[in-house]
Design brief:
The protein is an alpha+beta fold. Helices cover 33% and strands 35% of the residues. The chain contains three helices and four strands; from the N terminus they run βαβββαα. A hairpin with a 2-residue loop joins strand 3 and strand 4.
Length: 172
C-alpha cells in the first residue's frame, strides 16, 4: 500500500484513506480489478487511405461513465469511450470500448457513493484506458491517439444539471 508523507509525529496514513471528520471512519477505496468490458476497432477504408491519405482527419470523441453495485462493498465504475476519425475519403477508424474497474469501498456515506463512483472511480482507471486507446490506434496502423486528461467532476456536474433541467421541464 502506498503511503503519504509523514507528519511531524512520524505517523503515516494510507494513500487510499480520505480525510474524515472526527469520529467518522475514513473512506477506504482500492481497485480490486480492472478490465476491458467491451472493445471494437474498425478500420474500414485502410486500402483507400494507403493510396491517397486524403485531408487531415477530424476526430470526434464521446465519453460517458457508469457505475453499479456488484455486492456489499464491491462496485463497478466504467468508462464508455468512442473515437471516430474521418476525413474527405470517409471513416478512417472507429474505436469503441468500455473499460471498467471493480472497486472495494468501505466506510462511505450513502450520499457520497454516487459521486465517488462517477468521479473518483473513472479518475483512478483513466490512465489505463488512455494507454489502451493509444495502443489500439497504433496497432491499427495509425498514430497513437493520446487522450488529454478528462474532468470527470465536470462531467458529473454537467450530468446533474441536465437531470435537474429535464426534471424541471416534466413538472412544469
Amino acid at each position: 500500500m502506498a503511503e503519504n508523507g509523514s507528519s511531524g509525529n512520524g505517523s503515516t496514513k494510507p494513500a487510499d484513506e480520505a480525510i474524515a471528520p472526527e469520529g467518522q471512519k475514513p473512506i477506504q477505496a482500492k481497485i480490486v480489478s480492472q478490465y476491458i468490458k467491451d472493445l471494437s476497432f474498425e478500420n474500414p477504408n485502410f486500402r483507400k487511405l494507403i493510396t491517397s491519405p486524403g485531408d487531415q482527419p477530424n476526430l470526434k470523441v464521446e465519453v460517458n461513465v457508469g457505475a453499479q453495485r456488484i455486492e456489499n462493498d464491491l462496485f463497478e465504475s466504467a468508462i464508455e469511450f468512442k473515437a471516430t476519425a474521418s476525413n474527405n475519403l470517409g471513416t478512417i477508424y472507429v474505436l469503441e470500448t468500455v473499460y471498467a474497474g471493480v472497486l472495494k469501498i468501505e466506510s462511505i456515506p450513502e450520499q457520497a457513493l454516487e459521486p465517488f463512483l462517477l468521479i473518483s472511480g473513472p479518475t483512478m482507471i483513466f490512465p489505463f484506458l488512455r494507454r489502451l486507446v493509444a495502443d489500439i490506434t497504433r496497432e491499427g496502423g495509425f498514430p497513437p491517439l493520446l487522450l488529454d486528461p478528462i474532468d470527470f467532476s465536470g462531467l458529473y456536474v454537467h450530468r446533474q444539471q441536465q437531470l435537474a433541467q429535464s426534471a424541471g421541464k416534466t413538472v412544469a
